[in-house]
From TrEMBL:
It is found in: Cell membrane. GO terms for cellular component: plasma membrane. It comes from Aquipseudomonas alcaligenes (Pseudomonas alcaligenes). Keywords: ATP-binding, Membrane, Nucleotide-binding, Transmembrane, Transmembrane helix. GO terms for molecular function: ATP binding; ATP hydrolysis activity; ATPase-coupled lipid transmembrane transporter activity. SMART domains: AAA. The chain crosses the membrane at residues 28-59, 79-99, 158-176, 182-203, 267-285. It is a multi-pass membrane protein. Residues 358-575 form the ABC transporter domain. This is ABC transporter ATP-binding protein/permease.
Length: 576
């Protein structure tokens, strides 16, 4: 077993602890593993004893059996044999499944804890960006990598411990009765480990994270190709997508095949070597010590045979740990990033301001970690309560970064952003995502404190009162019943209703009306201004018609704010 496979169990168990699994649960799992090891070892010894007694019937009782009857239990051989068979049956048919069920319940809890922690980490704002930049990568991490770590990391770690204990007990028992046979099997174990390492080198090393990376890329190809299926079919590019996908599928198949080959190649070699050594030890024992009774040899041979599956599972668990090492490292890195970002986040800065003032920023600047260019520089602006501020700018000017600073997703690298009070902000973007659940769940985002009247009013301001009336179940209509029938404008207005429901101080509309025609957009903005006159609004848009509803507008150019008079994006006037 390589150093990598020896470190992996510690990393897997450390990952479980980081996900909130209490140490008492881990200690209970360890006790269950020890109990299972004890049951397996006792079962193997009992089987060997029963086999030895069956062979001894009619050939004279072996010496050890006579000692047992004299000093422990005075029962006839047949009665003792029946009791031993009963105990063996209870161990294998009752006790072992019971311990397995308890262990399964703990594993279920651990799986949930790991999945919840991974999802929470993926939902942490990625300041500076982590490795995951695509939603499909997050899906792979939470729904597939977690399962792979549990089944290929945590389970094998426990199996490794259990089977090593079983092997140690059986080897000790064997060495006590027949030192020569025990030494031979121990030598075989060492040689088998060397053979496994040699096979791994012959079959080639691989990047532990390669399989995960390929899986993420393949899922992204499938998802993104489905999203642009209309264009692919229109332009006749389906075959081109398949050609691009094929190398990934081929490499993934090769990586999977190599993993399977390593597993399939090592098991027969290890078993063959141990069987030959076991047979050789019995042969040599009979030659060097012909006085050894047959039942004792049979007992030790049965124990040796029980060692084979134990050792096979040891090597199999080590192989799985090597394969899943990349996923374990990936999840550790994800949790490290989430912890670091959580430590960096801070509450909005609040200070005394004029009564009408909502927020102000002074010489605000931001540069992404590791980047050479500054995205925002010397941004100074303010917004009053009830004021509508328009923000325009070309793509890449820094509008999204400024929004993230206002929302607290990023922290400024220079300057100051202050609020009159801790703000309650609503946000709506160009695309509105619907989550599994009901219409009520999606407008309130699973909040339980919103009254039906508030939800209905938000939908009405967004222009969806008539649309809501057509659904008999109203706010409790499942998303699946209407999602496929939504137009782009209706979906966007659902996002607007969600933002309106949550906005108390500031509403940020980030191209949130792009899917609406100008008449519908104008009606919505007028309705919003009339319904919530005290709400501050930051309107980010490319439509000059929408800017007519704002009190003033600014232009963001190369990270700096300029006054905007409505002529064009290329003719700003510097803010005084």
């Amino acid at each position: 077993m390589s150093r990598l496979s020896l470190v992996a169990p510690l990393q897997a168990l450390a990952l479980i602890e980081r996900c909130g699994v209490p140490r008492r649960s881990m200690m209970l799992m360890l006790l269950l593993a020890l109990a299972r090891a004890a049951v397996d070892a006792v079962s193997a010894v009992l089987f060997a004893v029963v086999l030895s007694m069956l062979l001894g019937i009619g050939m004279g009782a072996p010496a050890w059996l006579g000692g047992l009857q004299t000093h422990v239990v005075a029962l006839p051989v047949e009665a003792l044999l029946a009791w031993l068979i009963l105990v063996l049956a209870l161990c294998k048919a009752v006790l072992a499944p019971f311990l397995g069920r308890l262990r399964g319940r703990l594993i279920d809890r651990w799986s949930v804890a790991l999945a919840m922690r991974a999802l929470a980490a993926e939902l942490t704002p990625a300041a500076g960006g982590g490795r995951q930049t695509h939603a499909q990568g997050r899906n792979i991490t939470v729904n597939f990598t977690v399962s792979r770590v549990i089944m290929g990391g945590v389970f094998p770690s426990l199996d490794l411990l259990t089977e090593l204990l079983v092997a140690a007990v059986l080897l000790a028992y064997l060495s006590w009765h027949l030192p020569l046979m025990g030494a031979g099997l121990l030598l075989g174990l060492v040689l088998a480990g060397g053979v496994v390492v040699l096979l791994r080198r012959l079959l080639g090393r691989r990047d532990p994270g390669l399989r995960l990376q390929l899986q993420e890329q393949m899922h992204r190809w499938v998802t993104d190709s489905s999203h642009c299926l209309r264009e692919l079919q229109l332009y006749g590019r389906v075959s081109a997508v398949l050609e691009r996908y094929k190398p990934l599928a081929h490499t993934f198949a090769e990586a999977t095949s190599r993993e399977r080959l390593q597993q399939d190649a090592q098991a027969p070699v290890v078993e063959l070597g141990l069987l030959l050594l076991l047979g050789g030890a019995v042969f040599v024992l009979q030659r060097l010590a012909p006085q050894t009774d047959l039942t004792t040899v049979a007992l030790c041979s049965a124990i040796g045979l029980r060692l084979l599956p134990a050792l096979r599972r040891v090597f199999g668990a080590a192989q799985l740990l090597v394969q899943v090492q990349g996923s374990i490292v990936e999840l550790h890195a994800l949790l490290d990033r989430a912890d670091r970002l959580a430590a960096q986040r801070s509450a909005p800065r609040v200070m005394a301001m004029p009564t009408a003032r909502l927020m102000a920023c002074d010489a605000l600047g931001y540069r992404y970690p590791g980047a050479s260019a500054t995205v925002l520089r010397d941004v100074s602006a303010h917004l009053d309560r009830g004021e509508w501020l328009g923000l325009v700018g070309m793509s890449g000017a820094g509008k999204s970064t400024l929004v993230d600073l206002l929302l607290g997703q990023l922290q400024p690298t220079s300057g100051a952003l202050v609020w009159a009070s801790s703000p309650v902000i609503g946000y709506s973007g160009a695309y509105s995502t619907l989550l599994p659940g009901t219409l009520r769940d999606n407008i309130g985002l699973f909040g339980q404190h919103h009254a039906d009247a508030e939800l209905t009013r938000a939908l009405a301001i967004a222009g969806l009162a008539g649309w809501l009336a057509q659904w008999p179940e109203g706010l409790d209509t499942p998303v699946g019943e209407f999602e496929q029938h939504l137009s782009g404008g209706e979906r966007q207005r659902l996002g607007l209703a969600r933002a309106l429901l949550h906005a108390q101080d500031l509403l940020i509309l980030d191209e949130a009306t792009a899917a609406l025609d100008e008449l519908t957009e104008g009606a919505f903005l007028s309705s919003l201004k009339a319904a919530k006159p005290h709400l501050g609004v930051l309107l980010i848009t490319h439509r000059l018609s929408a800017l007519r509803h704002t009190h003033r507008a600014v232009l963001l150019v190369d990270g700096r704010l300029e006054s905007y008079c409505g002529q064009s994006l290329s003719s700003p006037e510097t803010v005084q």
